[in-house]
Amino acid sequence: MQFWVIQTLNSLALGGLLFLLSSGFSLIFGLMRIANLTHGALFMLGAYLGVSILKFVPNLWIAALLGGLAVAVLGGLLERFLLRKLAGNVLGQVLVTLGIAFIIADACLVIWGGDPIPVPTPPALQQPLRVWGFAFPSYRLAIVGIAFAAALGLYLLMERTRLGAMIRAGVDDMQMARAVGIPVSKLFTIVFCLGAALAGAGGILGGPMLSAYPGLDADMLPLALIIVMLGGVGSLVGAFVGSFIIGFIYTFGVALLPDLAYVILFLPMIFVIAFRPRGLFGRFAA
Amino acid sequence: MNRAAWLAVLGAALVALPWVAGEFYVNLTSQILIAAIFAASINLLLGYGGLPTLGHAAYVGVAAYVAALLYLKVGLAHWLSAPIALLGTTLMAGAFGWIALRATGLGFLMLTLALSQVLWGTAYRWVSMTDGDNGLRGLTRPAPFGISLDGATAFYYFALAVTVVSIWLMAKFVASPFGAALQGTRDQPRRMSALGHNVGLIRWLTFVYAGFWGAVSGLLFVYYHKYIHPVSLSLTNSAEGLLAVIAGGPGTLAGPVVGATIVMLLKNYVSTYIERWNMLLGFVFVLIIVFMPAGLVPGVQRWWAAWRARRT
Predict the structure, then answer these.
(1) Is residue A280 assigned to a domain?
(2) Quick check: is B85 in a domain?
(3) pTM for the whole thing?
């Protein structure tokens, strides 16, 4: 029984992290129509930056904030100075993000070395929470809470603010949005920064669970791709539901069939392709 | 000089190489040939079909792993394991093509990437089968018709023969009416569909054909190295192949061969001085796409035509 409870909580916590990763990926894809292949590398960079920040500021939450901010600045520079030069050339933009992903990943290897770096759990959350005789790891509960808060914040941003309305207009019909005077290019930068910030902060928040290691980027990127295909491009609800589905499939896959956990990830893809090409909540096929 | 003369000179140079060059260069050229088949197979999809695949390493890696596992775990002879590996990988390409070709453009790119990453992750984690990060060792090279391929020169001629046949068959494929239809689906899929062509089937057959040649490259790869590691299935490997095509010039026959040569030379030479192949790969990617989006071969051809026009 304890096994199922713990694995369920692990699934939820991984799902929460994946939401931080994939919501930005999905928004960028929905608005800019490009798959940002640096997203996994930004997640890993966030984790490593967090490790370094923790040496000076021994507080995980501040590290996540600063790490997310730094990755957001990098994302904004990338969008503004590289991707914008290639406007209209979608394949070129995607391949440039791939090239940048290689550069970031290799730079992380140079700076932080090849050994995994564990990230300590905040002291306040080291004791498990005991309810009805079950011990719940409290850090994982906190991650789930953060993911829900982030989801709520993003929902309010998208549905209740002027900025969100402009982004939604851009996702639905970019040319019309431009025609009525919405500064779509500025939105590109904002959304790219936002997505990068979420990925970077997710990286360091995931540190106590995943630690920071070379290859973290290559582990996370396919999960983000599968989530966005499953949930639907540009849909926050889709990213949210997809993240938790993949969180469950992956966690239970690793626990029950460790050798073949990755093969199970084919299932959601085949489901989407065969039955619902635009994803669960998507408006158009990727 | 016309094209046939150029090809004759190139052929003579390749055949004569082992007499004039040392073992290092012979081995390097073997690796370039293997990479050229891989790049040419990606070019079928990207250059002639307009389908940007970012998961073509899957076919290289699976063919190599199947051949290696059949040899190590089942003890099959090479003449049996090689066709099984080719057939199995081609069948997998059929299944992957069915999935990935539900989308075009970026959706296709993401699906091929996700599919190959799943295989990569499996190769890493299925330790009882693939020995994970250690890779599979203890393989041998085949001896077709009793000729041992263990020497660098013998293997080089073997790889050269396979490469010539592969490139020739791919060129035939592209020049055939089917190849013309394929290029039609790249440029005007809706018109092709209206003209009664089965666009989906044309793309799928090309996907399977490209997967088969990827598998051929994978077999040569595993015979050359006598070792296979999950990195062969990785995104880096797919990206190297794609970069070779983009650098050389997609949609040209010579492009991928030139591109593969450049990528392999960079990989072998520069990485002896700086151990940062991935970073260099990333920089080359960005530079090529920003400054030479059409690739080297069309770029040089245009320059050559302009120069000749000025002379006459």
Answers:
(1) no
(2) yes
(3) 0.88
